[in-house]
Structures are given as C-alpha cells and as structure tokens.
Amino acid sequence: MNAGRKPVHHAVYDTLADWETGHATAYLARAGYEIRTVGPSTDPVTSIGGLRILPDLALDDVRPEDSSLLILPGGDLWDTGDDLAPFARKAREFLAAGVPVAAICGATAGLAREGLLDDRDHTSAVSFYLAATGYQGGKRYVEADAVTDGGLITAGPTEPVAFAREIFRLLGVYEGEVLDAWYRLFHDSDPEAYAVLEQAGGQ
Which residues are catalytic? Predict the structure, then answer.
C-alpha cells in the first residue's frame, strides 16, 4: 500500500448493500489505498447478500485525521430506525474536518436526517425518498447519477459505477480521459474504453 496515503474507511453494518461500493473499493485498493472496514463495534455484521464481515475498527475509534474518505453504503437499517444514526454523526465530524464522505442509497437518507444535505447539492434514489425524511434540502436535490458538493458525494442505488467515478475524481485516482474511459468501460461496456485504460495503466 502507498505509505503516503491515509486509508479509506468503509462503513459496514447489518443489511449493507453489497453491490453499491464494490467498484469503488476494488479500484481504490488497486490504486494503493488501504480499505479499512468500520462497524458499530468490532462484532461481525452480515450484508444483504449474506456476506459475513468482521470490521477492522469500531466507529468510535475512527478519526477524520486518520482517513482519506468515509464511504457509507446503503442498507435496510437506514430506514427502519436510528441504529445507523451514529454513522451519519460521524459523517458530520468528517465533513467538519474537511475529510470527504461518500454516501449511496439509504445512507443519503441518513445524511438528510442529520441535516448534511440541507446546504449541499445532492442526489439519491428519487427526490420524494429524501423528502420523506422531513429534511430542508429539497431545493438542492439534483436529478443526476451522482453528485459531489462540499466534499460530499451522493448517489442512488442503481449508480454504483457513477458513485465510484465521483470518488476517483475527488481523490485524484483517475482524471480526464482515463476517468471517462473507466466509466464508459464499466457503465457502458464500451470496448474502446479498455484500450484507453490499458495504455494509461488504469485497468
């Protein structure tokens, strides 16, 4: 791993949506980032797909100054109570410290409840999903595959590739033509994009 880069912290909790962050974590790891999983505690959690994950760290032990990015995947628990509210509070701590946060699917609703979308452009599954949280940010909702504003990335559940694209752009993993080619390859299955990536060493 690249010693000069701080780890990327990936939140894990029961019901997390396995498919939403795989593109991001795989290619961040290829780019030299250590991916560290963060649970409510260090007890095992189980994803929607039945994967059992042993977190590297408990949420209380994660500090923004030790991190490059906090990733918050979706999960049923975001909408069934306050179990994951501490993760939204941790996101507030990260953003206040100038460390980026990336939230997809249900995690966007958690951040809406925390007030973190009131003053930032953002997106999610659909606007009325976030409106149901009672948040004050409806005027900043953007109909887009993924949105970055003020160090915060948001995306809906059907856009894991766009979500990863925004993460790579924010962290400078891929840029310009290479970033575009990565997106076209994985989102559009564009065979011409593979050659661009291969030449740039981004595959």
Answer: 105
